[in-house]
Each structure stands twice: as structure tokens, then as C-alpha cells.
Design goal:
It is a single chain. The chain contains 4 helices and 7 strands. By secondary structure, the protein is an alpha+beta fold. Strands 5-6-7 form a 3-stranded mixed β-sheet. A hairpin with a 2-residue loop joins strand 1 and strand 2.
């Protein structure tokens, strides 16, 4: 799943040990995702929202999303996409929405369904998810620091 060049770069540069165990990623903290939305000092955008890390977790997530998206959602006769929160993480749903070329996208959440009608709404959905994840990460950090 992970090509040898990426694997060697990751092992040599970004793998770290923690409490005697190896396999921890300095780039993403083993989440598999890196925030690529910041800009350079010159104002150039580095990316959009979250991208897959080069660590084994990131490569596995990328492979799964690419494979499932191609198998399930690339179809000229498809008139809509329906995905469930039961089958995908929030980040995976965001990445599927970012790749979408077919609208509407129906996201099944609990008893209700959230509908994304076009690319503009998909962008706002992804931005909202990123903002939520960033705020949740800050809450988790504060909770961790309390002990």
C-alpha cells in the first residue's frame, strides 16, 4: 500500500519512538491527516483543508477513500451520493465531499439526513468540519492538560 520511497522518507525523517514503542508520526500524530490550509509568508495557499499524511495511517486512509470513492461514487448514471456517518469518520466524509462531482450528496446522520446540493455548499461543509475538528482538538488539549 505504501510505496518504498515514501516509506523510507517517513522512517528516516518522521517516525519517532514514544515510551519505547516506534511507529509514531511526527507529522500528524498518527491521525493520518495533515492540515494543509495554511499560507506561506508570501500568501500562497499550501493546500485545502486536510490532506493525507505520508505515514502508514495516512496512506491507508488515502487508499481506502480513493478505492471506495472510485468503486462507489464514480458513475455517470449516478444522480446522487448517499453516505452514512456509521461507515465513515467525519474526516473521511469531508474528503469524499471534497472529491464529489455528483450532487446532491446525502449524509445520513442518526435519524436525519444532511443534503449538500452543489460545490459551493460542499466547500462550506468542508470548512465547517475543519473548524469543528480544530475546536475539538483545542478542547482535547485543554482536557489533557488538566490531567
Amino acid at each position: 500500500m505504501m510505496n518504498n520511497i515514501l516509506k523510507n522518507i517517513w522512517i528516516n525523517e518522521y517516525e519517532t519512538k514514544f515510551n519505547g514503542f516506534s511507529g509514531y508520526c511526527k507529522l500528524c500524530g498518527n491521525t493520518g491527516y495533515i492540515d494543509t490550509s495554511p499560507k506561506t509568508p508570501n500568501g500562497h495557499e499550501l493546500g485545502t483543508f486536510k490532506s493525507f499524511c505520508i505515514c502508514p495511517n495516512g496512506r491507508a486512509f488515502k487508499y481506502r477513500i480513493d478505492k471506495e470513492y472510485d468503486e462507489n461514487y464514480i458513475n455517470d448514471k449516478l444522480s446522487s451520493i448517499t453516505i452514512s456517518i456509521k461507515d465513515y469518520s467525519i474526516t473521511e466524509i469531508m474528503l469524499i465531499v471534497q472529491k464529489a462531482t455528483v450532487f446532491p450528496i446525502n449524509i445520513e446522520i442518526g435519524r436525519g439526513t444532511f443534503k449538500i446540493k452543489n460545490e459551493k455548499e460542499a466547500t462550506f461543509f468542508s470548512l465547517g468540519i475543519c473548524a469543528y475538528m480544530d475546536s475539538k482538538e483545542e478542547e482535547d488539549k485543554k482536557e489533557f492538560m488538566k490531567g
